[in-house]
Amino acid sequence: MPDAYKDVSNVVDIVHNAGIARKVVKLRPMGVIKG
């Protein structure tokens, strides 16, 4: 159910702007393994 999850970009921006954490790098998935 996709509506149960928040947008990661928005969460990271809020945490960064609040001073709780700081942005260092942006990770991008290269692939998915299911098994």
TrEMBL record:
- The EC number(s) this enzyme carries: 6.5.1.8
A GO molecular function term, named singly, is: GTP binding
Give the transmembrane region(s): none
Gene source species: Thermodesulfovibrio autotrophicus
Question: GO biological process annotations for this chain's record?
Answer: RNA processing; RNA repair
The protein's UniProt keywords, in alphabetical order, are: GTP-binding, Ligase, Manganese, Metal-binding, Nucleotide-binding, RNA repair
Catalysed reactions listed for this entry = a 3'-end 3'-phospho-ribonucleotide-RNA + a 5'-end dephospho-ribonucleoside-RNA + GTP = a ribonucleotidyl-ribonucleotide-RNA + GMP + diphosphate
What cofactor is needed?
Answer: Mn(2+)
Annotated InterPro entries: RtcB, RtcB-like_sf
Q: What is the lineage of its organism?
A: Bacteria, Pseudomonadati, Nitrospirota, Thermodesulfovibrionia, Thermodesulfovibrionales
Give the main EC class. ligase
What is this protein's name?
Answer: 3'-phosphate/5'-hydroxy nucleic acid ligase
**Residues that hold GMP according to the record:** 34
